[in-house]
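Work package 3, deliverable 3.1, input record:
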Amino acid sequence: EAGVTQSPTHLIKTRGQQATLRCSPISGHTSVYWYQQALGLGLQFLLWYDEGEERNRGNFPPRFSGRQFPNYSSELNVNALELEDSALYLCASSLPARNTEAFFGQGTRLTVV
Amino acid sequence: GDSVTQMEGPVTLSEEAFLTINCTYTATGYPSLFWYVQYPGEGLQLLLKATKADDKGSNKGFEATYRKETTSFHLEKGSVQVSDSAVYFCALRSFSGYSTLTFGKGTMLLVSP
């Protein structure tokens, strides 16, 4: 069974540009989470989607946005990129039951120059 | 709100030493608890989990017991190997409200031969 897949693996953008990151959850998983992991730091929660709806949002500016498609895949968009947006962006998926674990993809390394 | 507190690292050990990484949590109700591991350059992998009080999760020689009375979920391993060098994250998934996944800041473990 395929795990959580993220694309692209690496992304280099110029300050001010927009970045789009994609995530395909494990088959049957309806919840998708996005996290930012800056170098040397822990995971900062960005967004949580479930059944196509945004369920929760972390403390990030509105230029971080996303959506979940009918097939439960998800997209994270970052507008007006800033140098400090450079980080590893991790996507995770889970079943809707609240006592189940989340499975992570390998991440997208975004570098803003 | 929910929170997870982990001991700060790095934790530096010699091969075959005993490992303990402390984790305590604050949550409403009875959350599910998880330990994840992140090897360099990779995403997070689920290491073990426990879904109710007194449950013991175990995997690859690692163990953690869900202690409701002390709100703790400490990770232990009797004899660490160089290959265990990684960052370890304690996490919880709460049953209250919209259930997101809350992580601690992570603890880096360095094992020398």
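The radius of gyration of chain B is 14 Å.
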